[in-house]
Write a structure and sequence with these properties.
Udp-n-acetylmuramoylalanyl-d-glutamate--2,6- Diaminopimelate Ligase, Chain: A, domain 1, 5-stranded mixed sheet, 10 helices, about 35% helix, about 20% strand, globular, binds zinc ion
């Protein structure tokens, strides 16, 4: 199988035009004409992930976070990034990153979080190209070529929706710990406040707190944010739940490995086993 087959699928699953302007998505390293005999997903490429990919003779890493992300003037072993790129190039390992396109696509990370919470009336906090005819063609194309329904629904930044029953923040914290397999959830606000409509933006996305509030959400979930956004959440009376950056996104690269395995059953595909949350909670 050619790498281009996987790339074609990923570009339909998470259309690159959904990515933020500042982002760096798509095939970032490698040759789309080369063979793809095994594939690994991960949240972030680290030296441990590269080691696993080399040991596992992986031809493609689908990494949620782009590498390289910033423009590079040198690729040498003098830096960690340069060293990782050199090792992957030497081992013929390609890198594809869907990043914010995966956050925002119909079956993307934020949609998955909303579905885990069993929200109703799910929609994006900011719609992207909701009625784009090009996008409809992409969707139709994906159904025809891959014989499965890929994106079919909301495209856009973040998600929001109604809880099946109004729920207190303390109950939501407990639910989030179970649903995302977390030891703790960080929280800003009144634990006994009751939430009906909740906004979601995975990763580091505190900048959408006020957008969610303006869209009628009475609480907001993200991975991580800064101290001042926490203060803003209190001042605006919009309770905020922080799952951790890893906690809000890692599950999605495990889901992506499953989606890819169903599409390409002829090759081994797995989520990185070497990857772990770099932050430890010392309680
Ligand atoms: Zn992220």
């Amino acid at each position: 199988m050619k790498l281009s087959s996987v790339i074609d699928f990923l570009e339909i699953f998470a259309p690159p035009h959904l990515a933020e302007d500042w982002d760096n998505v798509g095939l970032l390293l490698g040759d789309r004409a080369s063979d793809c005999r095994s594939l690994m997903t991960c949240l972030t490429i680290t030296p441990d992930v590269v080691e696993e990919a080399v040991d596992g003779s992986v031809d493609l890493i689908v990494a949620h976070h782009p590498l390289p992300f910033h423009p590079l003037k040198k690729i040498t072993a003098d830096t960690v990034v340069g060293s990782m790129i050199l090792k992957m190039a030497k081992a013929n390992i390609a890198v594809y990153s869907p990043h914010t396109a995966f956050d925002s696509t119909a079956n993307g990370i934020n949609q998955s979080i909303a579905e885990k919470l069993n929200l109703e009336e799910i929609t994006a906090i900011q719609i992207i190209d909701g009625n784009s005819p090009d996008l409809s063609n992409d969707i139709q194309q994906s159904k025809t070529d891959n014989n499965q329904t890929v994106p079919n629904g909301v495209f856009g930044v973040g998600r929001m929706g109604r809880l099946v029953t109004p729920t207190t923040c303390i109950e939501i914290c407990e639910n989030l710990k179970v649903l995302f397999d977390l030891k703790l959830v960080q929280f800003c606000g009144e634990l006994d406040a009751v939430v009906t409509k909740i906004g979601i933006a995975c990763g580091s996305a505190g900048q959408f707190l006020n957008d969610a509030k303006q869209m009628g959400c009475d609480a907001f979930i993200t991975g991580e944010t800064n101290f001042h956004t926490c203060l803003e959440s209190i001042a605006n009376r919009t309770p905020m739940f922080l799952l951790g950056h890893y906690g809000s996104e890692r599950f999605a690269v495990e889901l992506l490995a499953k989606v890819l395995s169903e599409e390409f059953p002829q090759i081994p595909i797995w989520p990185s086993q070497n990857e772990s949350d770099p932050i430890q909670n010392v309680l």
